[in-house]
Amino acid sequence: MRTWLKQLDELLRGRLTAPELLAEGRVELPLGRFMPLAVVLGMTYGFFMGWFALLRGAPSASTQMIASMIKLPALFLLTLVVTLPSLYVFSALLGCRLSFRATLRLLVGAVVVNLAIAASFGPILGFFTLSTTSYSFMILLNVVLLAIGGLVGLGFLMQILRRLASWPPWVPTGPAAVDAANGYVAAPTPHPSDTLGQARSIFRVWLVIYSLVGMQMGWLLRPFVGSPDLPFAWFRVREGNFFLAVVAHLKTLLDQ
User: Fold this and answer.
1) For residue 243, what are the domain limits?
2) How far is Cα 222 from Cα 26, in angstroms, rounded to an integer?
3) DSSP 57-125
4) Which of 26, 45, 157, 244 has fewest C-beta within 10 Å?
């Protein structure tokens, strides 16, 4: 466990994604450590998420807590599986020096950062669970906390992808570079800002896709917070969507 925490600290401080490592197409994120770490961090947040059902006397409250601890890491790992191929294709189109395995490690790193933020919000979630009886408020609070963690995780991923898109270094400084040894003039090299602008546009599209998949995956895996008024179920009927549910809970909260 101490080794895991040390690896997590180095990831959060950027030591495992240093520019000199990325320049070689290396992502030093061992899957054997970070995949279990992602599960543990997700289960930590799921533990606090399950408090509401336990404290409000929801049917099969202890089972709901266990379900939350299982489904929260599953939400992120399943989203990773669905979106990984598209990230690899997008990065390949931009000429990033990442193998499929390195891309997987990079995305796992982003998930770990996301879940680390979520786990750090666990005590905050527990505090509000003890101080409110509103089911709709708890649903929306979880959406907000996980969204904050998601934004930080995607920001971490975007920063690394920008570094990769801007490599190798731009040697030519003028419209053309002269090779004195061989006596020819090289073709003009595109300006870095042009390539970075293209990278930002492409990766923003992917970030939207990732966010939509994550939100709908959460909707398919619901319930995460057990309702005191409904019997326990591992999964609810597939109807509606994430956005309609958020609007409905917001309306209920405002009408209370």
Assistant:
1) 2-168+188-255
2) 37
3) T-TTHHHHHHHHHHHHHHHHHHHHHHHHHHHHHHHHHTT----HHHHHHHHHHHHHHHHHHHHHTHHHH
4) 244
Q: What is the pTM of this model?
A: 0.81
Residues in the chain: 256
Amino acid (one-letter) located at 46: G
Q: Is 161 a domain residue?
A: yes
Residue 136, C-beta contacts closer than 8 angstroms, at least 6 positions apart: 249, 250, 252, 253, 256
DSSP 28-47: ---HHHHHHHHHHHHHHHHH
Q: Residue-wise pLDDT tens for the chain (256 aa)?
A: 677 788 888 888 877 777 666 666 566 778 888 899 999 999 999 999 989 888 887 778 889 899 999 999 999 999 999 999 988 888 777 766 677 887 888 888 889 999 999 999 999 999 999 998 899 999 999 999 999 998 988 888 877 777 665 555 434 444 444 444 544 444 444 444 445 556 667 777 888 898 999 999 999 998 888 888 888 888 888 788 888 889 998 998 888 7
How far is residue 89 from each of residues 13, 85, 103, measured CA to CA in Å? 28, 6, 10
Number of structural domains in the chain: 1
Spatial separation of the C-alpha atoms in residues 23 and 118, rounded to whole Å? 30
Which helix (H) or strand (E) covers residue 179, if one does?
A: strand 178-179
In a domain, 174, yes or no: no
Cα 124 from chain centre? 20
Collect all residues with Cβ–Cβ distance below 8 Å to 164 and sequence separation of at least 6: 22, 91, 94, 96, 97, 98
